[in-house]
User: Which sequence fits this backbone?
C-alpha cells in the first residue's frame, strides 16, 4: 500500500496542470451526472410502478364492491392489458387463471402474500418467471380474486433509462472536457509562457521581455505583476551596472587628477635637491608651487570624501532647516566678496526643508564659489527662492558666458569641466557641481543646468518642503 501511495503521488506531481483540470472537472461532471441519473431512474421506476398499482387498485376495488366479485372480475378481463392476469384462488388453495394470454403467475402465491395483497399491491419474485405486482380482492372462506401485472415492461423501461443515462453521461463528460479545453486553452498557454519566462530568468537571462496586458482577470494581474517585478529587477541590474561603471570611471579620473599634482611636486622636489645650484628666488618659487599643489591635492581629497559620504545610504540625522536663511547668508557673502556686483534677490521667508544644515550650507557655498570664480564681477546675478506646490524652488541666474551646449546635453559628470577656460588653476577640483547634485539628490530633490534668460547659466534646484512647516 505504501508503494502504491508513493507511485500515485509521483504521478500526480508529474501530471500537467491542463490534465489535472480536465480530469477533476470530468470527475465532477461524472459525479453530478451519476447523482442526477440515479434520481431520474428512481423517479421513472417509481412513476411506472405507481401507474401499475393504480390500475390494479381500480380492478380490486371494483371487484370488492361488486356483489359478484368473480363475475366482476370476468367482466374486467376485456379491459385489462396483455401483461395483466385475472385469476381465482379457491378454498382448496387451487389457483385458476380466468384471463387468456401468457401466464403471469407461474408459482402460486402463498396465503401470506394473498393476505398482504388484499391490503395493497406487493411485488412477488418468481424463480421460474418474471416478477409481478399482485393485488387481491378477499372473498368468504379464504377465497381471493387475483389481479397480477408483469413487471417485465417496467423493468425494460428502467433498463432503457439506465442505458440512456450512460449515453448522456458519457456525452456530457466528453462535451464538458472539450468545452473546458477550449475555455482554458488560452489561459493555460499563457501560464506556460510565464513558466518558460521564469525559467529563463532563473537561468540568468535578465533580458527577457514580458508584455503588459489590459485584462482584469487573475491571470492578467499575475502577468502584469511579474512584468513589473521583471522591470524592477532589470532596472536594479542596470543601476548596479551603471554604478560599477561609474565607480570605475571615478577611480580612473581620481587617479588621473591626483597624478598631475604629484608629478608637479616630484619635479620641484627633484629641483630642490639641487639647492646649491639654485638661486634663492627659484627655491622660494619651487616651495610655493609645492605648497600650492599640496593644497590642491587636499581640496581634491576632501571633495572626494564628501562625495563618498553623500552616496552612502545612511547619513547624519535630519532636522528642519530654514533654507531662506541659508540662501540669504550665502548671498551676503557673495555681496561681500564682490561689492560692485549687481544682485537681484527675491527670497521668500520661512521656507523650511527637512535635511542637513551642514550640507545645505555646503550646497550654497559651492554655488557662491562658482559664481565668484567663473562669472566676472561686473556681470549680474539673480537669485529667487519660492515655494511651488510641495517644493522649494531655488533658481540662480547669471549674465556670464554660460556653458557650452554639450554641457546641457550630457549633464553632470565627475571631474568634468564644461568650459576649458575653467582650469584647475582657478582652484576647482572638477567635483563642485557633482557635489551639489549629490547634496540635492540626498535631500530628495533634483538639480538642472539650463541656459539663463540673462544669457549665462541658470542653476535650477527643487527640494521637498517639510509639510509640517506649511501648517505652522
Assistant:
Amino acid at each position: 500500500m505504501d508503494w502504491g501511495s508513493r507511485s500515485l503521488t509521483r504521478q500526480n506531481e508529474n501530471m500537467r496542470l491542463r490534465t489535472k483540470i480536465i480530469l477533476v472537472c470530468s470527475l465532477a461532471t461524472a459525479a453530478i451526472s451519476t447523482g442526477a441519473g440515479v434520481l431520474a431512474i428512481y423517479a421513472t421506476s417509481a412513476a411506472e410502478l405507481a401507474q401499475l398499482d393504480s390500475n390494479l387498485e381500480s380492478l380490486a376495488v371494483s371487484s370488492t364492491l361488486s356483489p359478484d366479485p368473480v363475475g366482476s372480475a370476468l367482466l374486467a378481463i376485456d379491459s385489462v392489458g396483455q401483461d395483466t392476469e385475472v385469476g381465482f384462488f379457491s378454498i382448496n388453495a387451487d389457483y385458476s387463471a380466468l384471463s387468456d394470454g401468457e401466464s403471469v403467475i407461474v408459482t402460486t402465491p402463498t396465503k401470506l402474500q394473498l393476505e398482504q395483497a388484499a391490503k395493497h399491491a406487493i411485488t412477488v419474485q418468481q424463480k421460474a418467471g418474471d416478477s409481478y405486482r399482485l393485488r387481491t380482492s378477499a372473498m368468504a372462506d379464504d377465497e381471493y380474486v387475483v389481479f397480477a401485472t408483469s413487471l417485465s415492461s417496467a423493468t425494460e423501461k428502467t433498463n432503457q433509462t439506465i442505458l440512456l443515462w450512460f449515453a448522456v453521461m458519457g456525452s456530457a463528460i466528453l462535451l464538458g472536457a472539450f468545452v473546458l479545453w477550449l475555455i482554458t486553452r488560452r489561459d493555460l498557454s499563457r501560464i506556460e509562457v510565464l513558466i518558460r519566462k521564469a525559467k529563463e530568468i532563473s537561468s540568468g537571462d535578465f533580458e527577457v521581455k514580458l508584455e503588459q496586458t489590459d485584462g482584469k482577470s487573475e491571470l492578467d494581474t499575475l502577468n502584469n505583476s511579474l512584468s513589473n517585478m521583471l522591470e524592477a529587477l532589470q532596472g536594479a541590474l542596470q543601476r548596479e551596472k551603471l554604478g560599477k561603471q561609474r565607480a570605475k570611471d571615478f577611480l580612473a579620473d581620481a587617479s588621473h587628477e591626483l597624478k598631475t599634482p604629484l608629478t608637479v611636486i616630484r619635479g620641484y622636489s627633484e629641483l630642490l635637491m639641487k639647492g646649491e645650484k639654485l638661486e634663492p628666488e627659484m627655491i622660494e618659487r619651487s616651495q610655493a608651487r609645492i605648497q600650492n599643489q599640496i593644497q590642491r591635492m587636499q581640496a581634491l581629497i576632501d571633495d572626494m570624501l564628501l562625495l563618498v559620504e553623500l552616496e552612502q545610504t545612511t547619513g547624519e540625522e535630519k532636522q528642519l532647516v530654514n533654507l531662506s536663511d541659508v540662501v540669504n547668508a550665502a548671498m551676503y557673502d557673495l555681496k561681500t566678496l564682490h561689492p560692485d556686483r549687481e544682485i537681484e534677490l527675491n527670497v521668500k521667508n520661512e521656507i523650511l526643508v527637512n535635511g542637513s544644515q551642514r550640507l545645505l550650507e555646503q550646497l550654497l557655498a559651492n554655488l557662491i564659489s562658482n559664481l565668484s570664480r567663473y562669472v566676472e564681477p561686473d556681470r549680474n546675478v539673480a537669485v529667487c527662492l519660492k515655494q511651488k506646490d510641495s517644493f522649494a524652488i531655488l533658481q540662480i541666474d547669471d549674465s556670464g558666458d554660460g556653458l557650452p551646449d554639450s554641457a546641457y546635453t550630457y549633464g553632470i559628470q565627475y571631474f568634468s569641466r564644461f568650459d576649458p577656460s575653467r582650469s584647475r588653476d582657478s582652484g576647482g577640483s572638477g567635483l563642485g557641481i557633482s557635489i551639489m547634485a549629490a547634496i540635492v539628490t540626498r535631500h530628495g530633490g533634483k538639480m538642472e543646468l539650463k541656459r539663463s534668460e540673462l544669457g549665462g547659466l541658470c542653476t535650477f534646484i527643487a527640494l521637498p518642503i517639510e509639510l509640517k512647516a506649511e501648517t505652522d
